[in-house]
Amino acid sequence: MEHTISDYEMYLYLSYLPKFMETNLEWLDCDFDYTFGKGMDDESRLVDEGVKLLKQTMADEIAGTGANAVHVVPLSGGLDSRVILGGLLENLPSSQIAVATYGIPGAWDFEIAKKIAREFGLRHEVFNLLDEDWDVDHLLAAALRLRCPISVHQSYVRQKINNHFGVDCVYWSGFMGDVLGGADVLKVPHTDKSMAVKRHINIEPTPNYKDRGFEDALANKMLLEIPWNCLKQPKFTLDRQLYIGDRQRQLTRHITIIEGFNFKAPFLNKAWVNFMINVPHKWLFDKYLYKKIIKKGYERLSKFPSTATAGMPFGPASKSEIFFGRAAAKLKTCLAPKDVHHSHPRTNYINWTESLRHKGKLQDSVYVTLQDIKKRAILNENEIDTWWRDHLSRKADYTRLLMNLSSLELLLKAGVMT
């Protein structure tokens, strides 16, 4: 008898609750029949056209905002936020631009953002997660703002920026920038639906939670429920159709665009989307063309380091420099004084794994929510106790499962899940 998969199990395994029957590409609001530069396969012409479109996109999006509005950019060490910043700097005085960064000192995102803000003389608000209290009531307030089940802790951190600046600002999101640029493009895409589905549910599964039988049952559920007729778009591979039609729509969008605030998502501009979906596959792998467009369009910002290049300058960094940058970061992490909350510089979050294993504010709040979810009797109480005990004693790493359990309790309290 095939296992019936509950919403709770799906959330704990995937860290969000997909609605496979609603998977589609219609929300992207693009013209799949649009053809750009028929037969065009010339790199320089594609780069020039991309630069022109990207700059026009930013100008158009800014034109739709108030003349004296303050524009807030969540700035990291990635590419999307610096594209947005570059567009704002070209169209607005710096006095109307503020950048905000959350993370921990020493992380690439944290330090790169500080360098960029200093270089351009911008107001920079920094949220150091090492000082975070992880108060259960504050986390619950973040959960109450959600419209669908995603990670409460992750959303809570992002909401700090909006809570600080308020509802009168214009907020900018890099949502879909990386994806349209090719971040999800496989060198050899799947052509078989079952293989594409299995790859999809294994993008970021919760480790040590379910066995192969559960994965197979979830894959079968997805395979049967997805309305494949809504995904028949030859300009996207099967992998991209699932990634954009499900994960980007039902997870990433809700993490990066907070309900109740005025958000601009320039990479969803129809002209830009239509251009990028017509780019030949070979130019998308490893975001090749997207990087070229950014380098040419925003040369000054391209000279700053990037998380994608292990803290090396984005523009001129070679493969060997990136390799040694990553090696140096790993060595530095190993040799640095041990702080249970610090993590590898590639992540801008605290070290969730060790923070759960040591007495502190995060451990306290997660433990409290675990006690509450046990009272609901929707999961085996003994299993929860075992996961907690084995994680603390280092018998297994249940970081994501414990964080998801804590988040699930907050979502249930907030009425986002029932």
Write structural notes for this entry.
The chain folds into two domains: 7-342, Rossmann fold (3-Layer(aba) Sandwich); 351-418, no CATH class. Helices cover 51% and strands 6% of the residues. Strands 3-2-1-4-5 form a five-stranded parallel sheet, with helices on both faces. The model is unreliable at 333-337 (pLDDT under 50). It has 418 residues and is mainly alpha-helical.
User: What string, H for helix and E for strand, traces the elements in order?
Assistant: HHEHEHEHHEHHHHEHHHHHHHHH
Q: Which class of the largest domain in CATH terms? A: Alpha Beta
Low-confidence blocks of residues: 333-337
**Helix fraction?**
40-55%
Q: Strand order of the main beta sheet, please?
A: 3-2-1-4-5
Distance between the termini: 26 Å
Tell me the fraction of residues in β-strands, as a range.
Answer: 5-15%
The CATH topology of the largest domain is given as: Rossmann fold
Tally of helical runs: 19
What kind of assembly state do the chains in view correspond to? single chain
Kindly state the number of beta strands. 5
Radius of gyration: 22 Å
Main pleated-sheet profile: 5 strands, parallel
Q: What class would the helix/strand composition place it in?
A: mainly alpha
Integer count of domains: 2
Q: Averaged pLDDT, please?
A: 90
Shape descriptor: globular
CATH architecture of the largest domain: 3-Layer(aba) Sandwich
